[in-house]
Structure prediction request, 376 residues.
Amino acid sequence: MKWQQKNKGEKRRYGTLFTRKGSISTPFFMPDATRAAVRGVLPQEIRSAGIEALVVNTYHLFLQPGETLIARAGGVHQFMDWDGPILSDSGGYQVYSLIHRHPEMGRVTEEGAEFKSVLDGSKKMLTPERALQIQFDLGVDMMVVLDDPRPNDAPENEVLAAVDRTTMFAERSKKEYDRQCQQRGFTEATRPLLFGVVQGGVFPDLRERSAKALCAMSFDGYGFGGRHIDGEGNFLEDIVSHTASLLPDTVPRFALGVGTPKDIVRFFSAGWDMFDCVIPTREGRHGRLFVWKDTLTIWEDDFYETINITNEQYTEDFSSIDSTCDCELCTRHTRAYLRHLFKVSDPLALRLASLHNVRFYARLMERLREEKENTA
Prediction:
């Protein structure tokens, strides 16, 4: 068993995920090291912030520098100097987003995703088999199969076709995964974990159709595919909870691309265990920082606030960003100093703000795991 739940029968789940690079307590958050780097931050700084695992992206590393070079470097762990678990997203969402915005850039067929490289315009094909081969060459510890995501406003017939294509891709991925494990000599203890992705948009019956087909293939874990908010930004609580209820209790559930701190708590309360997103570092680079409201519990929607440090009100504010935070920024520097760094465009501002937000997310996971008594 690769995942063990400590409080069986509860919706808010606490457990341990076992990977070949070590165990991780769930729930946990993975910053996006999309191109084999958490932008502007060293791996050891991410580790010191309390992060145990990272996410890289198959699509981006396939395009540059290429999985062959990374394999020659000894795998992505050695390439980027990270010794903890790494999960690789399949790249399906990135390819679809590219094609959705620019139809002339490619198409998704029964064979796979055909697209033009944004780097040089050359034609590329990402099939379910190719996506798995790339991830094996990267040497990651957790893999996600290629899927066919669709926007929530897509018509039902289009979403149905994408669900069935996702199922077909998953079947081919599973076969290729087994072949690669045998070819590379992996044992039960040394093999990477494999995740399927449940699609179906906002249609409960299509979510059921997708989950039933994927669960029959016995993946190591399952992801929530597609967006979890509607066009107005409203959280799709019914779909999120319904999808979780369709999945086995014995495996981890991965909320791909989630999200804001509020949405992470909502997903966790609905039965999800793993999260990743670019938000903490991306927001940090734009001067937006997450701050605890310690008078509130994490189960209240407004348990935190976001401040924009470039606002004039912080010019002479010599307090810390967050007096409860133990990150380098909060223990050594003031709001006035960080605002100054942003105003003079010093790269140190991006690093300090990103690390603070990463530490905020790590502390959020710690607080979720500490509040086991509130799982009822």
User: Anything to note?
Assistant: The chain has two domains: 3-277, 285-373.
